[in-house]
Write a structure and sequence with these properties.
single chain, 9-stranded mixed sheet, two-stranded antiparallel ribbon, 36% helix
């Protein structure tokens, strides 16, 4: 490739008008450490800024695993009940949401942080019609607090919010660059899929997201794109419609 041709070219128009982006807590954290990395959060925010400037209506569901996972408190001992531990994990997602909100606003991007767990002095409560209005007005809607209920994952929250907000695609940003027939971190010969059907995922028991979240997407025929958020401008390229990650659809 000639040196004067950029390796990544992002079209000025997005391939999707309204997108639900699911970011795990790991996206905000230091490698192998708990906490929030300002550098990682800024790198994500800079991509989201360019996505918004392309004209995309963007909702972001944030995880909280970089700060706390409910399972670490409920496993093995009965001191903290699972419902309580899950609530602790949902509160961690609000902390990530606050960090992302301020970082985006430092880049002159309007945002609204909405939580499924009411905390009026910190953020807005999640109300579907209000969230849609924010999207229509060009604001990034950051969705924290999971579903507000224990015993479900943020994958389920992403599928639920994706359906409620009428998005064109659910994009799941992960550490791997798509869906494989086995764990690529353990099997160097694992085969990556570029496209999959819902039926194939279920038939081969492939790990895309938890089953309840996947069923919700399949029922609504909501496409799922799984990709590695660490790749060069991955979020922008995915929303621009580049061939990236694995796309799961009904056909």
């Amino acid at each position: 490739m000639p040196t004067n041709v950029p390796s990544v070219q992002t079209p000025s128009k997005p391939a999707f008008q309204r997108v639900l982006l699911k970011l795990s807590g790991e996206a905000f954290g230091h490698a192998g450490k708990n906490g929030i990395s300002l550098d990682e959060t800024l790198a994500i925010a800079e991509q989201l800024k360019r996505v918004v400037e392309m004209g995309t209506q963007l909702a972001v569901v944030v995880g909280g695993g970089n700060l706390l996972r409910g399972a670490q408190f409920s496993a093995g001992l009965n001191t903290i009940k699972q419902a309580t531990a899950d609530s602790m994990g949902m509160l961690a997602t609000v902390m990530n949401g606050l960090a992302l909100q301020d970082t985006l606003e430092s880049l002159d991007i309007q945002t609204r942080l909405m939580s499924a767990i009411p905390m009026d002095t910190v953020c807005e409560p999640y109300i579907r019609r209000r969230a849609i209005r924010h999207l229509e007005n060009g604001r990034v809607v950051i969705l924290a607090g999971g579903t507000g209920n224990p015993f479900v994952t943020t994958d389920t929250a992403a599928a639920l919010r994706g359906r409620e907000l009428g998005v064109d695609v659910l994009m799941k940003a992960t550490r791997v660059d798509g869906v494989y027939n086995s764990d690529p971190e353990k099997n160097p010969y694992a085969e990556k899929y570029d496209r999959l059907t819902y039926h194939k995922v279920l038939q081969d028991r492939l790990k895309v997201m938890d089953l309840s979240a996947f069923d919700m997407c399949q029922e609504a025929k909501l496409p799922i794109l799984v990709f590695n958020y660490k790749a060069d401008r991955a979020i922008e390229r995915a929303i621009a419609g580049h061939a990236i990650g694995t796309l799961v659809t009904g056909e």
